[in-house]
Design brief:
The complex is a heterodimer of chains A (543) and B (410). Chain A is an alpha/beta fold. Chain A has 22 helices and 14 strands. The two termini of chain A are 26 Å apart. In chain B, strand 1 and strand 2 form a beta hairpin. The N terminus and C terminus of chain B are likely disordered. The chains are: A alpha/beta (543), B alpha/beta (410).
């Protein structure tokens, strides 16, 4: 098999170079084979991750040593069949595995130098029960709690997740604005509250800005009105006020030029009353405290030594509790003192929803999850995940539940965000076609292992692992209607008693005796193309 | 209009197995204090399609467009509001049916059956009634219906909820045989073993329960159950959408093989266009309860005419990173079928929308051989009355002339 692949040394800069046909080891690295992303800093480094589920039938080894890296601004596709551990990988990274039955057993998840699994050894002890194949687990809850608390420093602001089912990921009893507003307050609280407290409605630039806006509204295009509205927002010092002014004008329609009183009235929210200022200042203090604590947590995880942070932990708990009650208590004086902040969060939400191409963001913000379609909700989820401007976005089958036309919208949006914000995306899907559209690099997973990693063109033009070849041969293609569909015989193995050696060998057409006994090492075949299969004899990859 | 259909024969000259004409299904919306009817969901609004022997017709569209409802109506699993589905009409009758519907087309209002009741129309309706009594599955009762039902089967979308968890596989597959009193018990079980063999399962699987199988295996059991009564027509309601690609290929290959061996006809319902292209001979595209385009598979995929079909095709990702295509991104979502937009139902999202689209509903017209489309971009060159007059000869011409119905705008 390996010999059948011609080893050509392509001319520099030719198409072969672009598609990543392997270079001789001595060839100098060409810039064309290494896209910019390959030189960008690594934002997430997952090493030898193992996650097991302890069930009554036995231990399910869902992840059995998964390693990969993501660089800034890169989209990594994670592809494989149902039950191969794609979602478990995402959940293990953010530590969202339900425990019991699942536990991350070992490995490292390095995020900006901090190991998110820093406390793993202390969290639980395992004792096998004789003659049963089962394990007795003793969990240390305070240690688990400490680890969970520290994850708050990473979740959302560092690593954000889009879940597969948008309908079940949203809270049905809060409006869209309340839910996105909560995320905004938690992750960008200092910025938002500070801007609100320091709004300068008396600025000399404000009046001319309003005049200019109304002038434009009389005969300008939508885009011009928006620019003018944003200029007003800048003059006031609260960008969301620009959004609000824009929508006031839009709602007024033809009479937009007479909207001055409406805008002046709306500006009242930027002059909080004494009660409201007191409340906002307290909120600012909490937001700052949260930020400090998160910084301490991150340093702690970086150094790997847990601090005795009793006081901080208590404060943290207190602040998170307050956020939770913010939206429940809407009546009475306390409710009114929060109104300024709630308005601000509402208009920020509207701005965010605009960013994900929702046509009527004001109505959608006021609405509840059940009022929206799957595609809309998925966009709301994306807006929410991006509200904190994360370094990494974990998208777990973001388009599987959606129709193709909506899927095209969402993929377009993700591509746009990647180029605009520079977020690194981990795209988890079973759809190889989606991966081909969006991803830069692909990891193919099978039964808890990564069997092949390659740049996207390389993987589709020259799949190495028999499993990848099988997957590609089995998809019907629109551009090749007469293609014969070749299926992979059998199905994904039971992970309680996985096949010995290479886990793919019972289904593999090229299985050799060695495959049944030992697991193949991951070898390097060409530029940044690695594969775990005995058919290939390249140098063993180093972590 | 909705009843408009081509009288031209399908590419294959095989006899028609199932032919739906202007089938409509409205689900009532109930509300208020006494749960009175406050509106209708127009799930299927005048759909016509033919399936010939040994042919696979693909039915595609977004979720909520009424694909599944059409599948169920063709089997009479739900009762239609109006319209007919004919089972095995003789070729002559089928031709006559098409003529009748062509002539009735202008007088069938989209909302509630026949609008004008001129004597000529009444005569046609009477003739239609006669044919329907004989061949429409919606008019059959008792033993006749049971006989038809044997020949029409379905494979459901979700293999996890379509098999009873309390029944052995042997009983699951033997159930249709028992209901229709086929053979003795031992003969039935013999047949079950054969069926499992046919779909690639072992006799040892007879004694297991559904939870012991993977999704792909369960779908095979579902297929075996559908095949038990030696049907002629099977509705495949998204049979592979719950499965992985590698397993999907297995199921598609089984379906193809069975079709060749037993000359089965399929209605393949799917939102996955690449799968439809791989398995169907002709494709029907639906949008909000209406057929917007119908053509042989190759024709549809190489020369889509309706803007919706074009957008749908361009939205499908192709597993080849080197292939970058111009993409039509549709804005917004599918409108609610409870309050469909007036005129062309696609006009709210259409990139090529014209003023006429929001007022007049485009009829499904033939623009190329076997290629039908419902869109104002393609003018109806064939004046409906003239065309049918030519086909029907002098008698029909006289009938047409006497009719007071105006020709369709478009």
């Amino acid at each position: 098999m390996a010999a059948s692949i011609p080893e050509r040394a392509p001319a520099m800069g030719s198409k072969e170079m672009m598609t990543g046909v392997p270079l001789p080891a001595t060839a100098p690295l060409s810039t064309s084979t290494e896209p910019e992303a390959a030189r960008a800093p690594v934002v997430l480094d997952v090493r030898d991750l193992k996650t097991y589920f302890f069930t009554y039938d036995g231990v399910v080894k869902a992840l059995d040593g998964v390693s990969f890296k993501i660089r800034k601004g890169e989209t990594l596709g994670l592809v494989g069949e149902t039950g191969c551990g794609k979602s478990v990988t995402a959940f293990s990274i953010t530590r969202l595995i339900t425990d019991p039955p699942g536990r991350v057993m070992s490995g490292k998840v390095l995020f900006r130098g901090a190991n998110l699994l820093w406390n793993l050894e202390r969290e639980a002890t395992f004792k096998p029960i004789r003659n049963t194949g089962r394990v007795k687990i003793r969990r240390r809850f305070r240690q688990i709690q400490a680890a969970t608390e520290r994850m708050a420093a990473v979740r959302g602001s560092g690593i954000s997740t889009i879940f597969q089912e948008p309908t079940s990921a949203m809270n049905p009893i809060f409006s869209i604005a309340d839910q996105i507003g909560e995320a905004l307050l938690i992750h960008r609280g200092t910025l938002i509250v500070d801007a609100l407290l320091n709004a300068h409605t008396d600025d000399p630039r404000v009046d001319p800005a309003i005049d200019h806006l109304l002038e434009i509204a009389r005969h300008g295009t939508n885009a011009e009105v928006r620019t003018a509205a944003m200029a007003l927002g800048d003059a006031v010092g609260v960008p969301s006020f620009g959004t609000q002014a824009y929508y006031i004008l839009r709602e007024a329609g033809p009479s937009a030029s007479e909207c001055r009183p409406d805008i002046i009235r709306a500006m009242a929210r930027l002059r909080p009353s004494g009660f409201q200022r007191t409340y906002l200042k307290r909120e600012l203090r909490y937001a700052e405290l949260r930020k400090q604590i998160n910084d301490v947590f991150l340093t702690e995880m970086r150094t790997g030594t847990p601090h005795r942070m009793a006081r901080a932990s208590v404060n943290r708990k207190h602040t998170s509790m307050r956020i939770r009650t913010l939206y429940l208590d809407v009546w009475g004086i306390r409710g009114r003192s929060r109104q300024a902040l709630k308005d601000e969060l509402f208009w920020r939400t509207v701005g965010l929803l605009e960013g994900v191409a929702i046509a009527n963001p004001v109505q959608v913000s006021r609405g509840f999850p059940h009022e929206l379609s799957g595609g809309m909700l998925q966009r709301v989820m994306i807006a929410m995940s991006l509200s904190s401007e994360p370094d990494i976005l974990l998208a777990d089958e973001p388009t599987t539940a959606l129709d193709v036309t909506i899927q095209a919208q969402i993929l377009e949006l993700m591509r746009d965000l990647k180029s605009r914000v520079g977020t690194a995306i981990v795209l988890i899907t079973h759809d190889l076609a989606v991966i081909a559209e969006v991803a830069d690099r692909v990891c193919v997973m099978y039964a808890g292992h990564i069997v092949e990693t390659a740049p996207v063109r390389d993987l589709y033009n020259r799949p190495l692992h028999p499993y990848t070849q099988g997957l590609l041969a089995s998809i019907p293609r629109l551009d090749q209607p007469d293609k014969e569909l070749i299926s992979i015989p059998g199905s994904v193995p039971n992970l309680i008693t996985p096949p010995s050696g290479c886990r793919f060998h019972p289904r593999c057409p090229y299985a050799m005796p060695v495959c049944k006994t030992t697991h193949p090492p991951t070898t390097v075949e060409g530029t940044s193309h690695t594969v775990a299969c005995y058919l290939y004899t390249g140098p063993v990859a180093v972590e | 209009m909705t009843a408009e259909r081509g009288s031209a024969v399908s590419p294959t000259q095989a006899p028609v197995v199932v032919s739906a004409h202007n089938v409509r299904k409205l689900f009532p919306i109930r509300g208020g204090v006494f749960s009175t009817k406050i509106g209708d969901v127009r799930a299927v609004d005048g759909v016509s399609l033919d399936v010939r022997e040994g042919e696979t017709v693909g039915l595609v569209g977004e979720s909520g467009c009424g694909k599944t409802t059409v599948g169920r109506l063709l089997l009479r699993l739900i009762e239609p509001t109006s319209g007919h589905t004919f089972y095995r009409p003789p070729e002559a009758t089928f031709e006559r049916l098409n003529q009748i519907y062509d002539q009735l087309a202008p007088s069938l209002s989209p909302s509630d059956g026949v609008a004008s009741a001129s004597p000529e129309v009444a005569k046609l309706l009477e003739e239609l009634d006669g044919i329907a009594d004989q061949y429409s599955i919606y008019r059959q009762r008792g033993k006749n219906l049971a006989k038809v039902r044997e020949k029409l089967q379905i494979v459901f979308q979700d293999p996890f909820s379509s098999l009873s968890p309390r029944m052995l596989i042997r009983d699951v597959v033997a159930e249709p045989l028992e209901i229709h009193h086929v053979g003795t018990r031992s003969q039935r079980y013999q047949r079950v073993a054969e069926l499992l063999q046919e779909v690639g399962l072992n006799p040892e699987h007879l004694w297991r329960f559904p939870h012991e199988f993977s999704g792909g295996q369960r779908q095979r059991i579902g297929i075996a159950r559908a095949l038990a009564l030696r049907p002629e027509f099977i509705v495949l309601d998204e049979p592979t959408s719950a499965l992985d690609v590698s397993v999907q290929a297995q199921i598609l290959n089984i379906l193809r093989r069975l079709q060749q061996e037993q000359r089965l006809s399929y209605l393949f319902i799917s939102h996955h266009l690449s799968v439809v292209r791989a398995i169907s001979h002709s494709v029907v595209v639906m949008y909000l309860g209406k057929v917007v385009e119908r053509a042989p598979t190759d024709e549809l995929f190489t020369r889509p005419l309706h803007p919706y079909t074009q957008a749908l095709l361009s939205a499908i990702p192709i597993p080849d990173p080197d292939l970058k295509r111009e993409r039509i991104i549709l804005q917004g979502d599918v409108p609610s079928p409870a309050a469909p937009p007036p005129g062309c139902r696609f006009h709210t999202r259409c990139p090529a929308v014209m003023p006429i689209c929001s007022n007049v509903e485009p009829p499904l017209i033939q623009v190329r051989e076997h290629h039908y489309v419902a869109c104002h971009l393609y003018p109806d060159t064939r004046a409906p009355s003239a065309a049918s007059a030519a086909e029907l000869g002098p008698a029909a011409g006289a009938l047409e002339g006497g009719a007071t119905v105006p020709p369709i705008a478009g």
